[in-house]
Design goal:
The protein contains five helices and no strands. By secondary structure, it is mainly α.
Length: about 150
Amino acid sequence: MFDIGFSELLLVGVVALVVVGPERLPSVIRTGLSYVRQFKSGLAHIKSEVEHELDLDGIKQEFNHTKIDFSDAVGYNELNESLDELRKGSEELREIADDGFEYADNLSNFSVTDEEIEADMAMLSEGPQLPSPDSEADTGIEEIPAETNNN
């Protein structure tokens, strides 16, 4: 609490010896120590009264119980597990993206002309090509010829 070394304590003793005198020094020390003891006991009493009034231990226990109940109600463990799964998924996506970038870097010899891009865009803007209503759809099933009765 107080940072008093041996030299400071010795200096206080010498000053007290000079000021009070050797005859009265023991009684002054006893009186000073009794005041210090009374002060300490008073502080301890005040501290115990405050702790009793505030019931700090009870509040701490109730807080811990509430914290446990809250973490159970919210599903804290499930949230942590979900968060771990999300982290793993993001790491997998990062690896996939890195592989994709590496693949794209390796395609440096691949080139597309502007004419090819324009032709593809024109085909996409026209929409899908549907067969005319009069045409027959190719189902992939061959017609079976009708059997003739030779009886």
